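writing this on my phone so excuse typos. first protein, seq and then structure
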Amino acid sequence: MLIETLQDERYAFAVGKIRVLETRLIKTPKYQRLADAVSPDELVSQLQDTDYAGYIERPEEYPSMIKSVNKWLQGLMDKYIIDAWALDFLKSHNDFHNLRVWVKSKLQEVKPPNIFMGWAKIEPESWDKILEEERWSEIPASMRDAIEESITTYYMSKDMRLVDITIDRHLWRYRLELSKPSSWLHEFTKLEIDLYNIETFMRYKFMKLDRKILHTGLVDGGTVDRIRLIEIADDPIESLPMALRFTPYEYMIGEIVKDWKDPMKFFILWDKVRDNLTLPILKMTIYYTFGVEPIIAYFLARKLELRLLKFIFIAKFNEIPTDLIKCRIPDVY
């Protein structure tokens, strides 16, 4: 994949700081040792020579550790990112999460649960008045479209699942539009959409969902035409690699569908495949001397690191076999 690199000297200092932080990301051999830990307590001991040492003393504190590091990471982005569109891109998952909570609570006529995410373009507490008074000018068009379509969809179907996937579809459209100033980020977002669509298709097959959910859930804008997946909706899962012929996904998907009948192993392997496809794109930012791209890549790599650590802690608490844990470890950043 050839991507045009536009150097932005405004980020020269910030990129220098990010290059130092990149060296402290956890590497594959360390993950292997974490997977070999015989208990959650040993897992904590293994983290004492990493940047997580000051965040955790006991295994049960791992959710607090992840929350604290996330907060630090968000502060780092606020400090170093100058372009509003880039911050909006990174905050988009939180914005659409908050939007989802408010819309669903309005539809169900209940008080929204206190599960809002604070690092967002739109303040969580603002959503009540925005929805109540229809103050659409205060939010981006993609969010307005998500609200209008999800509400209409619910009243037509009475199916809350369709509300969720309608909002997700608009989230990806929003991210794709926001990513346009950076050719690297735009290509990365197309990859994310492809992976989202493939996962949506696999969950549709696994859960034997209504075909309408698949049609509504698949997103335009990736490199793989969603029609490819719709056409094989009723075919065996083994047909998926063939539908992805001549794409970067064909071989890896072909390898893991062999484990389709073992759901735990299959979805663990899928998470690894997803990360192995994502990480090479993040690593491409080493060619940027300046620019916002290395900062975004570090944010995404660190989020991946947090997801991996969360998985390993949960696996250790639930005594998942070490070999299965190691199946999840990708070739990290």
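second protein below, same order as before
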Amino acid sequence: MIAVNKKPQTLVAAIRFFDADTADSYLASIKWPDGQPCCPRCGSVNVGWIKSRRRFQCREKACRKQFSTTTGTILEGTHLTSDQWIAAVWMIVNCRMGVSSCEIARTIGCKQQSAWHLLHRVREIMRPANEGKFTGTVEADSTLVGGLLQNMPKARRARITSRHPHAGKTRVHVVRERSTGKVRATIVDGETAAELHRHVRANVEHGSHVHTDAAHAYKSLRGDYHHSFVNHARDEYVRDGVNGCESFFAFLRRGLAGTYIHASPEHLAAYIDEAVYRYNVRHESEWDRFDAAMRAMVGKRLTYKELTGGATR
């Protein structure tokens, strides 16, 4: 285990602290909290250490499986070293506006394709866990992301907007619990009562106080919640407002437009999960954010084939 007084709090300190041996020890402490490695195939604790390969091997004659601290985690199958992974995860969870795959590739010394796969694997462990519904006072609001038109040729822009004023854009709906400041976000098909109510009911306890804007889709919430709204058309922004949701929207847009530039529709949900994770842990220390992400890696896997549908880059 990592000693309390030695936990790094900056990227430079983390790089100095996590050499290959320390990184493997840290991963082992996460994978086997009791300190006893066990074989992932047969479950035996009769295992040995192959120093030249930095791998464990089961000593049972019927098994003899070799495995490492990354086996059975989101890191399984990687060709990157443990200290490269730790530096990359530290950057991803602690850079406020996110970090691009090109930046990660330059920093840890790998190909951009490997860094892109690494980023999506980290987003997989950032996916929000089901922690129960929000209670008390909750804000709900939606926004549109993507589909930027200002740099398009005029003819193409007119052709797109003629189909629909929001063509190419994706609607994201957010609920925020005021007492904790935490948010949950999802992609919805449109600003319809059915879509917005589905997300509210899935994440907010019945009978809670729900604050929204004046969109008609929220009107029927009054049957299940104490509903109040703010009318932006009348320059109302404070009374029963949704400023917390607006704060998250600004946070999300800065990451998408400023760091990632373009998020493809098939991966947009993963980018939103990343923003939600980083927003919800924004008040924690850098070590706590990093440690929480690393401890969520056990039992998860995302291969390149699953991520791309079998396509190669």
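The domain at 137-263 is CATH 3.30.420 (Nucleotidyltransferase; domain 5). thats all i got for now
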